[in-house]
Amino acid sequence: MTLTGEFFIAGARRGSGERFQAYDPAKGASIDDIGFFSATEQDIADACAAAEDAAIACADLPLERRAAFLDAIAAEIEALGDALLTRACAESGLPLARITGERGRTCGQLRLFAAEVRDGQWLKLRIDHAVPARTPPKPDLRLRMIPLGPVAVFGASNFPLAFSTAGGDTASALAAGCPVVVKGHPAHPGTAELVAGAITKAAADTGMPAGVFSLVTGTGNAIGAALVADPRIQAVGFTGSRSGGEALMKIAANRPQPIPVYAEMSAINPVILLPGALAARSEALAAGYVGSLTMGSGQFCTNPGLVLAIDSPGLDAFLAEAGRLVEAQAPQTMLTAGIHSAYEKGSAALAATPEVKTIARGVHPTGPHEGRAALFSATAADWLARSALQHEVFGAASIVVRCAYRSELLAVLRGLEGQLTATLHMDDADLADARALLPVLERRVGRILANGWPTGVEVTHAINHGGPYPATSDGRTTSVGTLAIDRFLRPVAYQDLPAELLPADLRDASERGVMVRVDGQWQIA
Amino acid sequence: MTLTGEFFIAGARRGSGERFQAYDPAKGASIDDIGFFSATEQDIADACAAAEDAAIACADLPLERRAAFLDAIAAEIEALGDALLTRACAESGLPLARITGERGRTCGQLRLFAAEVRDGQWLKLRIDHAVPARTPPKPDLRLRMIPLGPVAVFGASNFPLAFSTAGGDTASALAAGCPVVVKGHPAHPGTAELVAGAITKAAADTGMPAGVFSLVTGTGNAIGAALVADPRIQAVGFTGSRSGGEALMKIAANRPQPIPVYAEMSAINPVILLPGALAARSEALAAGYVGSLTMGSGQFCTNPGLVLAIDSPGLDAFLAEAGRLVEAQAPQTMLTAGIHSAYEKGSAALAATPEVKTIARGVHPTGPHEGRAALFSATAADWLARSALQHEVFGAASIVVRCAYRSELLAVLRGLEGQLTATLHMDDADLADARALLPVLERRVGRILANGWPTGVEVTHAINHGGPYPATSDGRTTSVGTLAIDRFLRPVAYQDLPAELLPADLRDASERGVMVRVDGQWQIA
Fold first, then answer.
1. pTM exceeds 0.90
2. How large a percentage of chain A has pLDDT more than 90?
3. What ipTM was assigned to the predicted interfaces of this complex?
4. Beta-strand (E) ranges in B122-194?
5. CB B253 to CB A257 under 8 A?
6. With contact defined as beta carbons under 8 Å apart, do A497 and B180 qualify?
7. Of the residues A217, B28, B29, B292, which has the maximum number of CB atoms within 10 A of its CB?
8. Do B462 and A141 make contact, defined as CB atoms within 8 angstroms?
């Protein structure tokens, strides 16, 4: 498949006028390419109009068709072969092994949502039969979930496949029956074009309405702002910076009809090293920590940016070993020039903070846009006095906060903003400490781990990738795993409708094969 | 139980300083009473601090305790006996039969949520077992829903029991495990005090933490604004005017940590009279319509404020009969002086609109604050040209919109803002018309009725009382029925936690008796 630099509006390539260039961060140079067009306001309006037309058509299709569409997207992405991998590596600076794994995750995610569509439990079918003899008569009521309508999805730079054009938000929104308009990330326009072509082909092959998917690309914030403001868009999925997410939240809240924004934004993911674990295996903990911290140049939303422990010889040993390992870390290309410079600025600001001690920096970079790991420490008292230390530095930077007492550790946790994850490293002797912390952690985070590392988010049924603000804009939902389909649904009740007008799944004689709550009782029927 | 004029902070009565008087709208005079205190900023902060303390304690209690608390509230409200009924009638102007029925609805609702707590399906338990042999190893993941934290509930004036201090929002938030701080409605402070006393006694008797419930009362907007802005509040439930709901949404969105607002605000609930039904039974339809329109002086969020039909002799007959019936309608006391004057102003504005024809007004009032039913008509063309005609006039006012063609009727529906309900009146001959309208209605409303009337919202499992903006602030949820518990929950995942630390419901050996999704399969275990 040859790149043309065009975007996609409802099944057709489009684009004219000036072009912007794709950029290879590892080479520090534009990719010698044909260049990419930017969508105009008219293009965005056309995409949204087509999505609105498709919304009703999509909602009416059999679920099997919707599932087949998701399966077909996965197959078409795989059919792009090495061309997709090569392009995504060039545009992201990420190594081939990582991008290959990410493609597997992306296609697995699409197929998981195809299976979820077929599962059908998310329809939340409920039937309350009429009781005509009651005073007043009880009506017949039946309920199901329906799609919200067209969804705007913002591709993320740090997962050019798994959280971008055909990533988790697109997969879950399509699974819910919502047409999707993707705002492609300008850091990987070629990757986006390839993937959008795969989705467009899958839509045509499975007979979906053309407006079910569009991709609008371009630089600057105007395209995204216009997309979120379009009255036909009914929800927004976003993964990126806190400032970016908050800007979209403001636009969405100020519309004549405010709409939900699911923004996954900012977290430092505290890791708590409990005394027993620290005494028993400080060096192994340091190795695991530095591995999680520096993987992918630290460019994960679940990166462990904060370590908490009580002062002890074990903590000294942990810090010493972690420092040695960080110093030996080779620099890694970061995703974009902007992310790299923000990382260097953030790390320098931490280093320049009087209360913050620099424990170690990684090997000095030699290539363009290479990030250098950074390990800092601070006392809990200083941390508590400086709320700015909580701000995420996106990349492989982390602070170890030394607590004098258990109560100080608790105070740090209590003062934390919302987080995606919290991790407990513990031995049997730490059980009581861990039990005491759990209720505090539950109030602040979306996922609690024991004796692992927060990077690596399993795409499955029991995962939650979300958390209280500002980890996400809406901690009531997850952006990873099958529960994400709920974000794009809303209930509709049908009262005393003749059977001919009821959705097939809600008729008494239906062969649904899914659970239904009938007169309050859960049953498979 | 003697009224003291005090409010309740975490189990204790409180109040000092100036007092405001309760008002009897039927008499048009203050109720000769001791007067009611207004909560100060400190009182609100104390209520929120106690709620925050209670949040963790509540989440840890066995579900049976939480259910027993809800059951006890219902019993305590019933134990208030006639004193509650008399007081609620005096403060609302609503007749005794209505308030007696509303008490039954309120207590039934509390018991329904107690049963829902015990049902436990809302925990959404999910278990994905580890697969250590996979590369990379798949971790053990388990998920459940937990309470959001303290919830602010705003009592509504139009249901002084069922949507107020111990109403649907309070019941569903408590069922979810969230402490509640109620902003009592100043239109029924005595009713609020009595009910708050019942809740406070029920909390003490069932051993709930005192902060699980507080009531702050007072006039003006400052108390509600301070409550929503308090950092400990994690969600808001509101039923009232669009301007009131939107003001709370703005406060919630501008907090350092934005929080969800569930505001049920504004709807005109279109009723579509299809040609077959209209030809067959125009007079019966008129009788049903005027009954629904004028019940309770039209002060329901599901009041039928808009009727749509295609011009025909049947429509003429419907309008003539509806006009006769409206003219014969006795005036009814409205809830408050403010609601009455807003109703008269809104009705007068409609009457003065050149394109709007006044079909009938009810009998002229003789008592204070009595509302007079109002029936108007307009052509679809004029309706479409004047978007202001869509604005709700809260009370027994309604517009019949005459459409020349099916396409015009469709255009009116397509131009409608979000609604709580839409109603189809239809005969067998209307099936095709109805089927064509359904997808359009589903996009715009939360509940679709056939051959009934939208007033009367069943409290049950398959009900949805919600709808796209501005019917509610968040059409993803319902404020009536058991599904409402979902509004106050969020997911938490536990990764590789030792069994001793897992919530009991998520252990392998658990006797849950509820459905669990284990490795993707739904099972009762």
1. yes
2. 94
3. 0.97
4. 126-128, 141-147, 151-154, 180-183
5. no
6. no
7. A217
8. yes
